[in-house]
Specification:
11 strands, mainly beta, five-stranded mixed β-sheet, four-stranded antiparallel β-sheet
Length: about 140
């Protein structure tokens, strides 16, 4: 009995990584692209963007990355691109967030209201047949 229990435990440990890997779509990656401009519509080169799977709202303050997947900078045209494993819609943490550091903030519109936030939900962008998620032109303001 003790030997069977030990064998079952070892089997469970060996199979756990296989189940954890099912979170990603097999052999599938998403390429996230976008362009950052200022309020006048001019490209913002050299802007650092942080990509995270988790953000923490720390008692209503400015959200911060709990874990960092990438730190990238926009090129001379304000463009950026990064590749990540595709996430299944049923996975526990399926979102990717794009964050800025102060004083830069994304400016977006929601139901006719202008919002300024230090983060965007990158996985809101639709995925095309080639795995491209174009975030489009992202406007930033400095506060």
């Amino acid at each position: 009995m003790k030997k069977n229990l030990k064998s079952l435990f070892v089997l469970a440990i060996l199979l756990f990584p296989l189940g954890a890997c099912q979170e990603f779509i097999h052999n599938s990656f998403d390429t996230f692209t976008g362009r950052v401009v200022d309020k006048e519509g001019k490209a913002v080169p050299g802007l650092e963007l942080t990509l995270s799977q988790n953000i923490d709202f720390l008692n209503g303050q400015v959200p911060v990355a709990k874990s960092i997947v990438y730190r990238i900078k926009t090129d001379e045209k304000g463009e950026f691109s990064f590749v990540l494993p595709s996430r299944m819609d049923s996975s526990f943490e399926k979102e990717y967030y794009l964050l800025l550091t102060a004083p830069a903030r994304f400016q977006t519109e929601f139901n006719g209201v202008l919002l300024t936030e230090n983060f965007l939900l990158a996985t809101d962008a639709p995925r095309d047949a080639d795995g491209i998620r174009d975030l489009g032109v992202l406007k930033i303001v400095r506060e």
